């Protein structure tokens, strides 16, 4: 999945002319998502990711870090753009 994240970062950098701040945010959030999938759910790649896995991750963020709805919406948006 890490390679796909870097391909995606290259895409938003070149094609979408994303700002350095946006690139940093996307990379950090997607890497955190990847780590959660690998450590907590045992999912090494993209092929097995289902909607329930994404919901589990968002629930984890809300419960563990007390993110507000607007912060979770930003994270959802990043994941949607990635897929």
From TrEMBL:
Entries under PROSITE patterns matching the protein: CB
GO molecular function per UniProt: DNA binding
Residue ranges constituting the Core-binding (CB) domain according to the UniProt record: 1-83
InterPro entries given in the database record: CB, Integrase_recombinase_N, Integrase_SAM-like_N
Keywords for the protein's UniProt record, in alphabetical order: DNA-binding
Listed Pfam families: Phage_int_SAM_1 (PF02899)
Alphabetical GO biological process terms: DNA integration
Protein name: Core-binding (CB) domain-containing protein
Organism: marine sediment metagenome
């Amino acid at each position: 999945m890490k390679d796909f994240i870097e391909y995606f970062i290259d895409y938003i950098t070149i094609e979408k002319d994303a700002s350095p701040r946006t690139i940093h945010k996307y990379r950090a959030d997607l890497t955190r998502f990847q780590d959660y999938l690998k450590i907590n759910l045992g999912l090494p790649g993209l092929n097995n990711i289902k909607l329930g896995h994404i919901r589990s991750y968002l629930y984890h963020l809300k419960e563990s870090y007390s993110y507000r709805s607007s912060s979770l919406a930003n994270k959802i948006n990043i994941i949607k753009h990635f897929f």
